[in-house]
Fold:
Amino acid sequence: MATDSLTALGLGTEEPHPQPMHRPPRSQNERLMNLPLALRAYLFLGLIEAVAAMAAFFFVLKGAGWIYGQRLTPSDPLYLSATTACLSAIIVMQSINVFLCRSSVEPAFTRRIFNNPLILWGVALELVSLLLINYTPWGNLLLETAAVPVELWLFLLPFAAGMIGLEELRKWFVRRSLRARSTIGGLRPSS
Structure:
């Protein structure tokens, strides 16, 4: 919660789309939290993050020789490392997600990354906090975490790349649909 606050503030200060008049108007009755937004946030991006988090959890367990059904106590170092891996995956995926959420339609990396220092500082804070939580004795003691294996970071790369790829593919379909509706409605499609 603490690590995500600065990036959330950064998203709130994001520059508006440069060509809003090239899009069809929204309904006056449309809510801020609507069904497409909820589906994107919770059933699409959220599901990808959940899969990455659970995969990280089991990656650490399996890497240490754990067998399905074997009981671990909450204070077991292996259990603590696995839960820390789960938390680490969530934070890494959220760091990727903030760049994807800068626009629900435009590609993530067409907007200049350095235009929003709050997002950059927020991601830096998340990653530094993550390393402190994982690899310092006081971080381990305070949050009941344990160091994760270095291989975990490589294991998470395909999940991060997959999340970027799937979200960019979804945005491409949305842009294509908007262009088709704009053309049908007599509006000039945006580039």
Q: What stands out?
A: The mean pLDDT is 86. The longest helix spans residues 151-184. The chain is about 65% helix and 0% strand. Residues 5-9+48-184 form one domain.
